[in-house]
């Protein structure tokens, strides 16, 4: 039998688990990165910025292999779907038998936001209080849910860049937290200025968001989509990433003052933030280890409501 996890099934599983669990999954996978076999992500580019990316991964400790296909494709006339779509095949590693087919649009959004929140806790200066946010969509919602699962001991001010009333929905969603205050900003520059932590989930940017002098001493920037902060590449003190090889093609990669992988910091092989004056950039490009580990956890936490189908794979030697 093959289990089918469609979007609604994954969403139902995801909403019944506590946000701190996602933080723990991100942390575990990064600390155990060497136990995963993760070939380089491959990509097929198409017209108008559309693409397919293929992300394979193996985790022998749990006898699992996955292959994730993710792509961006503009909507056709009258079509109803998300622009980004992704699916994952989950196999037994030692047999090659297919265990599950999963729509991982929800999982991808969740693990991307959770990874950003994890990086915020890792690299923002101690007791940060002011957070600038722009790109207040689903990934940002996931990020802040996970972030707030880790911060209960102090008040935070969220500076929200206003865009198509997204900030109203955001404030409504997070009004349940008594330790959050909100400020509304009309420009990126205003959002960035005086923020200890800046998180962006904007998917398109043609220029830098703010001038060099806008970024206060000791701030941390997490560009979830890696856009809008190229000027910071040239003067920030440290850059961290989930995988150096994935960002080696960045325009100013060779100009970074310092570069290290998150895993090496977590394992004590490299230094993270060492004082409250360092300006830090975090470029997480997305790892298949997180797709596989989240898919595995969703499989293990299934609600026994997913569809199952008979799949008759070849069981005997055959002749043409």
Structure commentary:
- This protein is 29% helix and 26% strand.
- It is built from ten helices and 16 strands.
- α2 (19-31) crosses α10.
- The protein is an alpha/beta fold.
List keywords for this structure.
8-stranded mixed β-sheet, alpha/beta, 10 helices, 8-stranded parallel β-sheet, 320 residues
Give the helix level as a range of percent.
25-40%
Query: How widely separated are the two ends?
Result: 26 Å
The gross shape turns out to be: globular
Structural class: alpha/beta
Number of helices: 10
Fold topology:
Blueprint: E1 2-5, H1 7-15, H2 19-31, E2 36-37, E3 42-45, E4 51-59, E5 64-72, E6 84-92, E7 98-103, H3 105-123, E8 130-134, H4 138-148, E9 156-161, H5 166-174, E10 180-185, H6 188-192, E11 197-200, E12 220-223, H7 230-233, E13 238-241, H8 244-247, E14 259-261, H9 262-266, E15 280-283, H10 288-300, E16 307-309
Parallel strand pairs: 1-7, 8-9, 8-11, 9-10, 11-12, 12-15, 13-14, 13-15
Antiparallel strand pairs: 1-16, 2-4, 3-4, 4-5, 5-6, 6-7
Q: Quick summary of this structure?
A:
The protein is α/β, with parallel strands linked by helices. The protein has helices at residues 7-15, 19-31, 105-123, 138-148, 166-174, 188-192, 230-233, 244-247, 262-266, 288-300, and strands spanning 2-5, 36-37, 42-45, 51-59, 64-72, 84-92, 98-103, 130-134, 156-161, 180-185, 197-200, 220-223, 238-241, 259-261, 280-283, 307-309.
